[in-house]
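Pilot study result, target chain (278 residues):
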Amino acid sequence: MIKRIAFLGCGSMGEAILSGMLASGFKPSAVIATVRRAERAQELASRYGIVAIASDEDAEANQQAVKGADVVILAVKPLGIADLCREVHSVLPPRAVVLSVAAAVSIEQMEAALPAEQPVIRAMPNTPLKVRRGVVALSAGSRASDSHVALAHEVFAGSGLVLDVPEDQQNAVSAISGSGPAYAFYLAEAMAAAGREFGLDDDTAILLARETVAGAGLMLAQPGADPAVLRRAVTSPNGTTERALATFEEQGLPGIITAGAQAAAARAAAITSELSGS
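Predicted structure:
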């Protein structure tokens, strides 16, 4: 059971994790977060009732935050993860699970910058954690036991789907569910743009696109939902929807989506290589 959790960095993804945790029953008094700016620390403290410290005001903020922590969440940009590990190396409690949510930073890179027996878990969450509909993939390091993995599950349990994957699948997860919300938002943008082409005013076009994508998402969230079955159910033979979908196929939309996901995964692999200096 987690009694104290530290967020080192709390930007968009860190805040998504934090809000999901608190909504699922974590006590604000169990959370401490570090950020760079005092204004951001005050914002988080006011919004969530947690302790938040600005490193601009306290150079030892990260070291103070990890003391006594059961779980330490690393939620800074990938480029800063290794330095952050080295910064808190000497004060990390041996039992503390270090949980990174930074894309493309390997477990090996983190373990190299941490004490010899420190348990490390790599996570790939997505921002729908904010509304408790997130997806999180966890990969355990060589020093992480089943009990450590259970603590990581506890962090995300109330925020959506949590699954365990081998680390070599993390780039694929990043390309599908990590970046995936942006794909859905991009689809809604494109639908709204099409509406404007038909002469709809901006407010109506975005409302139709937004509510349609959100409603379809809720249908997909039903137990056992199959996107292919749902698609066929609203596609009448020789009807308007069938004609639109046929055009998407002709224009190569499925291939475009696959190519985009492959590009995302390739970029994640490249970042890992860049960070390792190879």
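One observation from the pilot: The mean pLDDT is 96. A full batch analysis is planned for the follow-on phase.
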